[in-house]
């Protein structure tokens, strides 16, 4: 599709060192041969498909091995099987894989086509022309319109907005949904119309293509001036233009060179532990194969020397073979060929098919479908399913994963009275769930219809004109950094940096204090239906240390007032001491709110004298323009003014949990899965959520909080925590040597689990600073040990990298399967590091989902994914592998025994067609059906008894021991399979007197016994006989006999006498009662011990799943008790905090007016004020009135070098 | 207007798997079918004492009578076996021990023996070979079934598999290959000695091969003549054979490739010790047994050398039953397995009663 292009991977081309792009000069740019904007994610086309795909497939060791066998078979002295016994399975496997690859590639072609054929407007020869994306070249100037995707990496030249500003959404790039501002450099921002743009002949010299999304450095040369370019001037492919009517951009990187495409590298291929075990076992089996080959080759050499040499009168040696030794050497390879079926090629394909089936079941699961978001669960990786049944550690993000990231204004305390409790008719607090009607806000045309509040008394207070309540909501409507947008009259949209703030402003809005619009200098509030414009004098912005924010406004009456909201711990200290009583009441309310897991804020105000303010503002101006110590000076000034405030009240915001989070966590904990929360949030918030989702409970013996800032502090805190655990477990009487155990068991994970069991319930909370120290090489083990001994671990304020490090740490030392779940771009590293990554397809974009192996939209689906799908997948895969190894050993080892009776000549026992078809036809489908459909207990039971999950974690169902049992059973079967017919056939004759023990009859008898025995065995292994299982098992037997008779029929023989030598054999042999007696005997002898053994195991030492299954059978109606989740309000410690997730510095941005474009769009429509007029005012004022302008405003000035 | 853009596809180059291509119009809600929701009705067998123990007893109770039946039947079969290899110096055939393929005149020897019990029903006469590896890979494949099926081109161009017995003196060998070349060619004749007179016993040489072999698998080359000599024109005899294939027998329907001795030989044995049907002795009338008790003599034309590789040659006379010839193994095996099953059943029953978890539902930890 794409024309041949220069790509960095081309060995011929020199790596690009810098990129030169000249606008409107296609010929000039042509000579650099930059990649065009055509992207190609597909790997093949029709011509290259076969060779390239085959080449790729033969890079797989297994495929190459079979190819090698195939080549061996072409040597006549070695060939012990016909060529087709290997080539048919090989071709089948290659075909299946090729078809899969082809379908994948077809879809890629389709999506490539779709993307490449999108239309964009390109400026060619002075006119805008519609062009397909793929025809856009580097150096073209293209026009983008609102809500369009950016076609390539562009240098923003100009836009419809003043100052060349434009807004983009980068959700596709980094998953962040908030808008970002990009700005054209001033010289080009004037190029508003096409004629000017057509004249533009600037040249950009910049860095070569790379994958750094947030970095760009280049220079624009135009009209003999140099202008520095940065990422601020770039629009990247994949972004979407928002709130900007149009903009023009110069294509700098196109197609595969764009940052988006440079970032879409292949993700690391994850393997499951079963995969690794399987590979080890396959290697062992190869070793075993070679051993058998060697034994038989030695046997052959001896035989040829002792017997074969004399037998030459009837059977001379091949011409090339001159010694018994050489014959033995050849027979080694011959045996390698016929014994290769111990590791059949179909193993890998079958495993993939089963996993694919499981993935489809996940995709199809109705109970993991989220109706609200219309997203079904999706298994994005099809190769990890059984690992879902072995998870021991879950690392969870908080925001968006455990919580919905929706903040709800839940309660408030105003002037000593608490509002927001749901009261029933008698005035008692009502229980959750039996809520009455929410408060009706219909009188207020500007109200947000989604807002719910249950306490009508607050509204009454507003309507009655309670001044405190009015002041309370006035504060909420003024003191914030929210931007408003009014698309149509009365349709307000708030754009809040943090959802908490949005919730507060929305609450004020519904209670008739509607924040309507803002300019850098004013805030317009619709107070009880009357528009009031406050003059915004200053925003004292939020930061981590201050934990509060304030605004200073001048009301229309001219009164200057400071409104402040912030964390209780900080704010309560800064109140005027006069209001002691109110403070006490409010504190009680705060405790109550915190006890319910709500996030609280305290609100206060202070009136400022005009003179005082003037003086203060003056100092502020000087401080903000100071070159040194600006931050300190500002902080001191803020501190000074936010003092002696009057308490207004407090708000309580509910950080809404995702549905079913506490229940899910409880069940997963019961399943012995440890859950660690890794969050970027603050400690208070994280702990709060920890309590509300029942990870932390008040029943816990202790919650250790590690907040040390130095290595020593952290080490000390960890040590103390451990000591406490030791002490208590020692006092419980059985921890006598725990200390030593702890030290010695640093790497032996199982020992520590003993420690965990006796240690009681502890939890660990650690913050980012301490974590950084704890993750250092000399302390990581201490940290891990302490953390693993705790029931719950919460790491707060962690960076994405630390998230990955924590996961890596557990992976490294615990040898346990880890699962990371998250929804945001900051979880990507952790998702990629963990064995299994789960993405929540929620609101924070799709970055996490793209990096994940599984995705769904609700945290609660995790329990179903693990306890039902994971558990079944693991069970099925284990059963499948056990049976698969068994059946192939039973099948193949017969050749080994036969070797001792045929002069070690590598003569096969079976017909060559049987060997060809055994694995791919006769025995494949029943075991596949079992691998796909089997269930030991129903899904309800898996949820009811989370303990059923444990065998997977301990890896009990398929490990080396189980493998050897399977192998032993296979070998046992093969021995009987050979020696029983041998015993029968040695002297016997048929019922018509003719010879019974001819080779072909023997082959048919052994083959038939084998098929019957392995069918009975799969019948025993299958625990869940659906119609499909019945069909496959009986069908396989039927197909065996059908093919047997067909292969032995006259017709085929007449056509190919040399290929179908067994003519007439089936009907002759299978008509013999002796043969059937032999088959029955073999079957019973092979199966009987297995049944006896399994029965004994079930009877004497049943697994939990057996017991559950048995109970299910006996008492179908038995209803096991559900574990009740207690929903008890927790009285106790106060955990509140100014839990705002927004960034510092936003206030400054507002004051500078730089981000005003959003609201100005809205303003222009309703306030009849030109959107640019106030910007003009602002510009005029600039320089003089620099209270509002910030140093970052300097970006407006051209940077002339 | 927003462009329908699936960023997922662009960002990782993969189509997003299942259900995604449907787009907005189609609901992405999974179908509520028993199959997709893994709720297919199913039979869930479980090994309980109620099923396993009876099974063991039933198997035991069925196997033991069958075993006894087979054992008795097998014991009622008359079988007489003579090793005539001649390794023992006292054996009359000792002189022939080192014969070669084409020694002339052929070495003959006579072995006298006595049947103590009469053989009532039809008697089958076998030759048995030991330490003869008819199942060796190179041996087994050394034949051309196409040629044996009468294919004229294969007749003149035998398959490579027949090497080194595909051509001799620049002429194709018919039948080619090591199997045909090594065909057993001793002649055995049986006489009853009645008062010093040797009464020859009629040995039937037809009806000893499978019907399918004789009529489907093996066919003489076709042509516009019935004269085998002409049909085999251009071929030569196997190296070890004294006579070409078209002179194996005088009867036209037992000559050439469809000679039954030849067909029997060509059906290679599975094990290095084997017996092959040589002749039939049919019961003349119902009044007297096929072979009375008494003295017999076996005349052997000793052509087939086996001594060089420690092979043995035997002649076996046997009657058969519904389940073929004498086969003590099967009967004993059935009795043994039946007994073991029964015994195991008892043991399991005892264990189950003493230690079994009968009240299993009680100990499900919650």
Automatic annotation (TrEMBL), chain A:
| Keywords for the protein's UniProt record, in alphabetical order | ATP-binding, Lipid transport, Magnesium, Membrane, Metal-binding, Nucleotide-binding, Translocase, Transmembrane, Transmembrane helix, Transport
Q: What class of enzyme is it?
A: translocase
The reaction(s) catalysed by this protein are:
ATP + H2O + phospholipidSide 1 = ADP + phosphate + phospholipidSide 2
Record's keyword annotation contains Membrane? yes
**Residues that hold Mg(2+) according to the record:** 397, 399, 823, 827
For activity, the cofactor(s) needed are: Mg(2+)
The protein's superkingdom reads: Eukaryota
The record lists the membrane-crossing segments as 81-99, 281-303, 323-349, 880-901, 913-933, 963-982, 1002-1020, 1032-1055, 1075-1096
GO BP terms: Golgi organization; phospholipid translocation
Where on this chain does ATP bind? 397-399, 501, 542, 565, 599, 679-681, 797, 803, 826-827
What's one Pfam family the UniProt record gives for this protein?
PhoLip_ATPase_N
Q: Where is the P-type ATPase C-terminal domain?
A: 849-1102
- Give the protein family: Belongs to the cation transport ATPase (P-type) (TC 3.A.3) family. Type IV subfamily.
- Protein name per its UniProtKB record: Phospholipid-transporting ATPase
Taxonomic path: Eukaryota, Metazoa, Chordata, Craniata, Vertebrata
TrEMBL record, chain B:
Q: Which UniProt keywords apply?
A: Cell membrane, Cytoplasmic vesicle, Disulfide bond, Glycoprotein, Golgi apparatus, Lipid transport, Membrane, Transmembrane, Transmembrane helix, Transport
Could you tell me which PANTHER family the record lists for this protein?
CELL CYCLE CONTROL PROTEIN 50, CELL CYCLE CONTROL PROTEIN 50A
Q: Where in the cell is it found?
A: Apical cell membrane; Cytoplasmic vesicle, Secretory vesicle membrane; Golgi apparatus; Membrane
Q: Where are the transmembrane segments?
A: 46-72, 329-351
Q: Which GO terms describe its cellular component?
A: apical plasma membrane; endoplasmic reticulum; Golgi apparatus; transport vesicle membrane
Q: What is this protein called?
A: Cell cycle control protein
Name the source's superkingdom: Eukaryota
Residues annotated as region Disordered?
A: 1-31
Membrane topology designation: Multi-pass membrane protein
For this chain's UniProt record, which GO biological process terms are given? phospholipid translocation
Organism of derivation? Gopherus agassizii
């Amino acid at each position: 599709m794409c024309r041949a292009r220069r790509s960095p991977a081309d060995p011929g081309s020199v790596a690009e060192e810098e990129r030169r792009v000249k606008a409107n000069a296609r010929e000039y740019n042509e000579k650099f041969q930059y990649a065009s904007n055509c992207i190609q994610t597909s790997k093949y086309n029709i011509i290259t498909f076969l060779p390239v795909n085959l080449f790729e497939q033969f890079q797989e060791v297994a495929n190459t091995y079979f190819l090698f066998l195939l080549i061996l078979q072409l040597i006549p002295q070695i060939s012990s099987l016909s060529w087709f016994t290997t080539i048919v399975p090989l071709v089948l496997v290659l075909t299946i894989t090729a078809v899969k690859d082809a379908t994948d590639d077809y879809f890629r072609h389709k999506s490539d086509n779709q993307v490449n054929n999108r239309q964009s407007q390109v400026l060619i020869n002075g006119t805008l022309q519609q062009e397909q994306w793929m025809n856009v070249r580097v150096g073209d100037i293209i026009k983008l319109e609102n809500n369009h995707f950016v076609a390539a990496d562009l240098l923003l030249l100009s836009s419809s907005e003043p100052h060349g500003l434009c807004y983009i959404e980068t959700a596709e790039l980094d998953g962040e949904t908030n808008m970002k501002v990009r700005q054209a450099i001033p010289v080009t921002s004037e190029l508003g119309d096409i004629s000017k743009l057509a004249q533009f002949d600037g040249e950009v010299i910049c860095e070569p293509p790379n994958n750094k999304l947030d970095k760009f450095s280049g220079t624009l040369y135009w009209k003999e001036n140099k202008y520095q370019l940065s990422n601020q001037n770039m629009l990247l492919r994949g972004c979407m233009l928002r709130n900007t009517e149009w903009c023009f951009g110069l294509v700098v990187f196109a197609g595969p060179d764009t940052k988006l495409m440079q970032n879409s590298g292949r993700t690391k291929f994850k393997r499951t532990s079963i995969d690794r075990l399987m590979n080890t076992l396959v290697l062992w089996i190869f070793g075993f194969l070679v051993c058998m080959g060697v034994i038989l080759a030695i046997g052959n050499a001896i035989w040829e020397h002792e017997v074969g040499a004399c037998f030459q009168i009837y059977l001379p040696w091949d011409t090339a073979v001159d010694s018994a030794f050489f014959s033995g050497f050849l027979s080694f390879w011959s045996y390698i060929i016929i014994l290769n079926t111990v590791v059949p090629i179909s193993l890998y394909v079958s495993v993939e098919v089963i996993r694919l089936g499981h993935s489809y079941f996940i995709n199809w699961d109705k109970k993991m479908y989220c109706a609200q978001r219309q997203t079904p669960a999706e298994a994005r990786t099809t190769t990890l399913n059984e690992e879902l049944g072995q998870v021991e550690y879950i690392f969870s993000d908080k925001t968006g994963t455990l919580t919905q990231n929706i903040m709800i204004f839940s309660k408030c305390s105003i002037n000593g009275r608490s509002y927001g409790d749901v009261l029933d008719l008698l005035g008692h607090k009502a229980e959750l769930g039996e809520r009455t009607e929410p408060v009706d806000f219909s009188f207020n045309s500007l109200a947000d219809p989604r807002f719910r509040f249950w306490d009508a008394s607050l509204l009454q207070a507003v309507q009655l004109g309670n001044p405190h309540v009015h002041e309370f909501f006035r504060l909420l409507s003024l003191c914030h950094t929210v931007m408003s947008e009014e698309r149509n009259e009365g349709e307000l949209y708030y754009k809040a940096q943090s959802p908490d703030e949005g919730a507060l402003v929305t609450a004020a809005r519904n209670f008739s204090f509607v924040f309507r619009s803002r300019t850098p200098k004013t805030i317009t509030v619709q107070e009880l239906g009357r528009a009031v414009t406050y003059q915004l004098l200053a925003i004292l912005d939020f930061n981590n240390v201050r934990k509060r924010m304030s605004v200073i406004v001048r009301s229309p009456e001219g009164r200057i007032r400071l409104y402040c909201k912030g964390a209780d711990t900080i704010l309560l200290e800064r109140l005027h001491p006069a209001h002691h009583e109110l403070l006490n009441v409010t504190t009680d309310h705060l405790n109550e709110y915190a006890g319910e897991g709500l996030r609280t804020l305290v609100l206060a105000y202070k009136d400022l004298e005009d003179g005082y303010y003037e003086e203060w503002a003056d100092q502020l101006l000087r401080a903000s323009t100071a070159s040194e110590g600006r931050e300190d000076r500002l902080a001191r000034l803020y501190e000074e003014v936010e003092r002696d405030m009057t308490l207004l009240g407090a708000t309580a915001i509910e950080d809404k949990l995702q549905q079913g989070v506490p229940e899910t966590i409880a069940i997963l904990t019961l399943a012995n899965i440890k859950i660690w929360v890794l969050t970027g949030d603050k400690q208070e918030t994280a702990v709060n959520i920890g309590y509300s989702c029942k990870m932390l409970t008040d029943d816990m013996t202790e919650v250790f909080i590690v907040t040390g800032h130095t290595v020593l502090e952290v080490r000390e805190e960890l040590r103390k925590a451990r000591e406490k655990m030791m002490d208590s477990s020692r006092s419980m009487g059985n921890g006598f040597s725990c200390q030593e155990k702890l030290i010695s068991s640093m790497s032996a994970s199982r020992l520590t689990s003993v420690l965990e069991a006796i240690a009681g319930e502890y939890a660990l909370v650690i913050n980012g600073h301490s974590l950084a120290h704890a993750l250092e090489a000399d302390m990581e083990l201490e940290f891990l040990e302490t953390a693993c001994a705790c029931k719950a671990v919460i790491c707060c304020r962690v960076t994405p990298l630390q998230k990955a490090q924590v996961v890596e740490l557990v992976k490294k030392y615990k040898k346990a399967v880890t699962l990371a779940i998250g929804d945001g771009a900051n979880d990507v590293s952790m998702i990629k590091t963990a064995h299994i990554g789960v993405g929540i397809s929620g609101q924070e974009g799709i970055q996490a989902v793209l990096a994940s192996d599984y995705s769904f939209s609700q945290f609660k689906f995790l329990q179903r994914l693990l306890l039902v799908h994971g558990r079944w997948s693991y069970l099925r895969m284990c059963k499948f592998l056990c049976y698969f190894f068994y059946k192939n050993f039973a099948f193949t080892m017969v050749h080994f025994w036969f070797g001792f009776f045929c002069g070690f000549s590598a003569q096969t026992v079976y017909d060559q067609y049987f060997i060809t078809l055994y694995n791919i036809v006769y025995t494949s489908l029943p075991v596949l059906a079992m691998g796909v459909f089997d269930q030991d207990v129903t899904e309800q039971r898996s949820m009811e008894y989370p303990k059923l999950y444990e065998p997977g974690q301990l890896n009990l169902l398929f490990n080396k021991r189980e493998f050897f049992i399977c192998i032993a059973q296979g070998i046992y079967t093969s021995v009987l399979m050979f020696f029983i017919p041998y015993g029968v056939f040695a002297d016997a004759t048929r019922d018509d007197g003719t010879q019974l023990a001819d080779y072909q009859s023997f082959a048919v008898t052994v083959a038939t016994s084998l098929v019957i025995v392995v069918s009975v065995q799969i019948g025993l292994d299958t625990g869940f006989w659906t119609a499909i299982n019945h069909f496959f098992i009986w069908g396989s037997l039927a197909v065996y006999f059908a093919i047997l008779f067909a292969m032995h029929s006259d017709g085929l023989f007449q056509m190919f006498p040399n290929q179908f030598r067994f003519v007439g054999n089936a009907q002759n042999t299978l008509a013999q009662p002796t043969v059937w007696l032999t088959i029955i005997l073999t079957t019973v002898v092979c199966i009987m011990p297995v049944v006896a053994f399994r029965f004994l195991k079930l009877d004497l030492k049943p697994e939990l799943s057996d017991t559950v299954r048995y109970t299910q059978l006996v008492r179908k109606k038995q209803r096991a008790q559900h574990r009740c989740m207690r929903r008890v309000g927790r009285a106790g410690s106060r955990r509140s905090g100014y839990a705002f997730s927004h960034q510092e510095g936003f206030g400054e941005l507002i004051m500078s007016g730089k981000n005003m474009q959003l609201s100005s769009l809205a303003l222009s429509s309703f306030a009849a004020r030109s959107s640019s007029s106030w910007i003009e005012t602002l510009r005029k004022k600039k320089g003089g009135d620099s209270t509002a302008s910030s140093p970052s405003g300097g970006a407006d000035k051209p940077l002339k070098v | 207007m927003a462009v329908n853009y699936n960023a997922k596809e662009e960002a990782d180059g993969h189509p997003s798997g299942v259900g995604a291509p449907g787009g907005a119009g189609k609901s992405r809600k999974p179908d509520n079918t028993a199959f997709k929701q893994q709720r297919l009705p199913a039979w869930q067998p479980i090994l309980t004492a109620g099923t396993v123990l009876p099974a063991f007893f039933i198997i035991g109770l069925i196997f033991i009578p069958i075993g006894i039946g087979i054992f008795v039947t097998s014991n009622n079969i008359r079988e007489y076996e003579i090793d005539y290899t001649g390794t023992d110096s006292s054996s009359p055939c000792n002189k022939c021990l080192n014969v070669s393929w084409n020694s002339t005149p052929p070495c003959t020897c006579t072995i006298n023996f006595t049947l103590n019990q009469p053989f009532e029903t039809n008697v089958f006469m076998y030759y048995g070979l030991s330490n003869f590896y008819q199942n060796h890979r190179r041996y087994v494949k050394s034949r051309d079934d196409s040629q044996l099926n009468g294919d004229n081109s294969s007749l003149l161009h035998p398959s490579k598999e027949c090497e080194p017995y595909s051509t001799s003196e620049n002429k194709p060998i018919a039948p080619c290959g090591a199997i045909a070349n090594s065909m057993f060619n001793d002649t055995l004749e049986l006489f009853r000695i009645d008062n010093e007179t040797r009464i020859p016993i009629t040995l039937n040489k037809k009806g000893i091969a499978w019907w399918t072999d004789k009529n489907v698998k093996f066919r003489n080359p076709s042509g516009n003549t019935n004269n085998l000599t002409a049909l085999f024109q251009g071929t030569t005899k196997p190296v070890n054979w004294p006579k070409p294939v078209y002179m194996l027998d005088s009867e036209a329907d037992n000559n050439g490739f469809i000679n039954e001795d030849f067909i029997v030989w060509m059906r290679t044995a599975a094990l290095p010790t084997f017996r092959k049907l040589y002749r039939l002795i049919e019961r003349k009338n119902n009044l007297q047994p096929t072979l009375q008790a008494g003295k017999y003599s076996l005349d052997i034309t000793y052509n087939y050398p086996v001594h060089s590789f420690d092979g043995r040659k035997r002649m076996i006379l046997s009657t058969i039953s519904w389940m073929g010839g004498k086969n003590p193994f099967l009967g004993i095996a059935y009795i043994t397995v039946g007994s073991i099953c029964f015994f195991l059943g008892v043991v399991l029953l005892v264990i189950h009663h003493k230690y079994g978890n009968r009240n299993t539902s009680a100990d499900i930890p919650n």
